[in-house]
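Example 4.3 (complexes with small molecules)
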Amino acid sequence: MTLELDRVTLTYPDGDGRLTALDEVSLAVPKGSLTAVVGPSGSGKSSLLAVAATLITPDSGRVVIDGTDTAGLRPAELTALRRTRIGIVFQQANLLPSLTAVEQLQVMAHLDGRSPRTALPRALELLDAVGLRDQAARRPHQLSGGQRQRVNIARALMHDPTVLLVDEPTSALDHERGAAVLDLITDLTHRRATATVLVTHDRTHLTAVDRIAEVHDGRLTIPATV
Ligand SMILES: Nc1ncnc2c1ncn2[C@@H]1O[C@H](COP(=O)(O)OP(=O)(O)OP(=O)(O)O)[C@@H](O)[C@H]1O
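Answer. The structure with adenosine-5'-triphosphate bound is encoded below.
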């Protein structure tokens, strides 16, 4: 399994006690497959993504990325794991206003200590993969909301992650653009063989995902498919 959560429990301080955000959550995602996690507001979706991204350490349970149990890693090793193996697509694209679409991707290489120039072919290839090759020189204000979200997705794939974590990618989009972005994530998951988890409160566009899991009050269930 490329991504594995094994009986993960996460609590937050809550007044005098603790609030259980994730309650013994287990989830295994093979490469090349997309699991959507749906649940109402406050059910634990963002917490699940943060734990899978190794941004939060759970109280108990295991998070295994590409066969590596993250519990044993030092902070610097965790950072390296995130930089090489994990791609995160946040709800808002958060693009840098002064950079063109292709530069938004090249800057990722720069942050990793690589030359933006050598990253150019890959950046262009990814923009092509998300259907934006002709918009490479545009800045965010010259792109539509759906196009900005595509740049956001391409940017998360710059370092060729094996695990792709996606947070509510369609919340800022209209119906048609939301459906197109979901199709794109599904397609990229299969073609680039990522283990993808997408969290959302909205089931509308989930027709093509490989599996839908539900989270309620921090408990995850995977309904049997008929
Ligand atoms: N940093 C925190 N400190 C304390 N409680 C928190 C913290 N973050 C989340 N919670 C609580 O944990 C529970 C799960 O929150 P989480 O953000 O994971 O849910 P969610 O399903 O992503 O919600 P939404 O769809 O509204 O973003 C909620 O009850 C929330 O209030």
